[in-house]
Design brief:
The chain is an alpha+beta fold and 273 residues long. The protein contains 13 helices and four strands. It is globular, with a radius of gyration of 20 Å.
Amino acid sequence: MFRHHNGRMGWVSWGNRRRRRDLRHPRENLFLGICVAVTVLAVVGAVNRSLGGDGGQPLLLLSVPGAVFFARGILYARQRSDGVRISENQFPEAHRMVVDAARELGLPRVPDAYVVLGNGRLNAFASGHGFRRYVAITSDLFEIGGRLRDPDALRFVIGHEVGHIAAGHASYWRQFGVSVANVIPGIGMTLNRAQEYTADNHAYAFCPEGVEGLRVLAAGKYLYRHVDFADIADRAGTDQGFFVMLANLLSSHPVNTWRFHALRDRSRPGRVL
């Protein structure tokens, strides 16, 4: 993506930045700013209290940058030491998906990818440590692309996680910047929901035909093929009310009805609140 010469590399980079901006949920940067402001105010307050001779909680708060760094390092070490690395020799079809997603979404470097033991959990995530970025997919979710023979669904999952990396969600400074806000109910979670919509937009741009694979989140890996995606999306307009909004507010991901509706109706961004 970045090997063009004759002065064209700048144009390609600008094109990638513009595309990422178009794929980003319009409310994401607003909530990111709020979360960073909360963290900055908390840290500044802790510094002032510490300089004033107050120990205890201020010093604990000032340890957050190091805590975030070590938590990321330990998480990465666990994937490397316990997981199965996706490579050209091991799960080569999935490796090709990761490479294709990285190129399609404009990453200068292909992230590492791992299959980790799921024990029934359907999950995937993206993170990093230092300059490394990686995605991890639980074995139960990974099976939809192999044993259950739905490669497009797996491509969508991989596109979603690589999309998190392309959007900058796996950055250390970003995760530190929202660390304090994440412990306040409703604030950090709201940013996270906007980020999930952003990652869905990247996945849709990479593999739109795999969008209905998200039915696995509603019915599991064995029943999802029998689920009507449109029916769940339609319920976003009928299954509403205070407690639905509260359930969404307290969740790190948009509720399925809203999320499915946003993926079906591409004319407007998904509902965050």
